[in-house]
């Protein structure tokens, strides 16, 4: 057989081999890609992502730390060979913002597993949306009741016994007029932040809201965290903030006055699990536990009613 004829005969075999080799490479590449994707999903499942109302910034880290310590202890008890307790702690990431802003992010597909609102309306609305879409959703749960306080970083409020129409009129209107000064009072945006909504309702009940608003003395902050920042840095003279923020920042008691709980709409804070993350339900239950509720009470929250 001539060399030329041998080459013709062997060509189909070479093409078949090349084709098989190409298929194997593609299969390997797809396998690597799938493995990386699965690893990414597995890594994501290890992290519990929480969307939390801004007022929780002062207390939630302590609650998370206690939860992680308890979880690590329980796992360590089950696994006596474990040498690194730190590796047993559930990984948790928190994003703080106004409840309204977080709700909008969740509706836009933000990858949160648990939503801790500063009110009851947003979690209820999310649950209703899921029901409308025929999707399964857990029921909202109450984990805290917030307290409002009037704060000033540059005024002494210790002489004021209670905040009512007469004291507010004197503090915000009469005194400034007598000294020819204009005071600025900040509150969180009532449309987005439940603490702001309760502060607005309080001022309306005391019949001073319209006058303060018309004279442009009210400064809206995006959320309760920004309201505290404005007041703490004396950008505004007074601010309606969360009592928990003041306790967390160790503000002198003479600089603030807690409002009577019955003088404004109760700030009941609800949460809702929004994914099937294995730790989301577990952490939501921990928030309602006696140990977590003690941390909330120490941080300036009122006790929640037992279900």
TrEMBL record:
GO terms for molecular function: metal ion binding; molybdate ion binding. It comes from the Bacteria. Gene3D superfamilies: Periplasmic binding protein-like II. Pfam families: SBP_bac_11. Residues 1-22 form the signal peptide. The keyword Signal applies. GO terms for biological process: molybdate ion transport. Keywords: Metal-binding, Signal. Belongs to the bacterial solute-binding protein ModA family. This is Molybdate-binding periplasmic protein. It comes from Psychrobacter piechaudii.
């Amino acid at each position: 057989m001539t060399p030329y004829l041998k080459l013709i005969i062997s060509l189909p075999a070479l093409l078949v081999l090349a084709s098989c080799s190409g298929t194997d490479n593609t299969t390997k590449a797809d396998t690597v890609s799938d493995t990386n994707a699965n690893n990414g999903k597995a890594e994501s499942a290890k992290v519990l992502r929480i969307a939390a109302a801004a007022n929780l910034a002062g207390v939630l880290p302590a609650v998370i730390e206690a939860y992680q310590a308890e979880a690590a202890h329980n796992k360590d008890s089950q696994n006596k060979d474990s040498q690194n307790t730190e590796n047993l702690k559930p990984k948790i990431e928190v994003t703080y913002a106004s409840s309204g802003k977080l709700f909008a992010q969740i509706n836009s597909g933000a990858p949160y597993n648990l939503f801790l609102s500063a009110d009851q309306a947003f979690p209820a609305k999310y649950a209703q949306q899921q029901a409308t879409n025929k999707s399964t959703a857990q029921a909202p749960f109450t984990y805290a009741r917030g307290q409002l306080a009037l704060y000033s970083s540059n005024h002494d409020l210790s002489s004021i016994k209670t905040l009512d129409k007469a004291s507010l009129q004197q503090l915000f209107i009469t005194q400034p007029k007598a000294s020819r000064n204009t005071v600025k009072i900040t509150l969180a945006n009532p449309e987005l932040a439940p603490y702001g909504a309760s502060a607005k309702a309080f001022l309306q009940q005391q019949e001073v809201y319209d006058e303060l608003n018309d004279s442009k003395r009210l400064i809206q902050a995006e959320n309760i965290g920004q309201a505290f920042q404005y007041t703490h840095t004396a950008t505004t003279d007074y601010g309606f903030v969360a009592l928990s923020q003041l306790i967390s920042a160790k503000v002198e008691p003479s600089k603030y006055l807690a409002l009577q709980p019955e003088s404004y709409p109760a700030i009941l804070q609800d949460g809702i699990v929004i994914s099937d993350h294995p730790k989301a339900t577990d952490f939501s239950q921990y928030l309602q536990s006696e140990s977590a509720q003690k941390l909330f009470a120490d941080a300036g929250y009122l006790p929640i009613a037992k279900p």
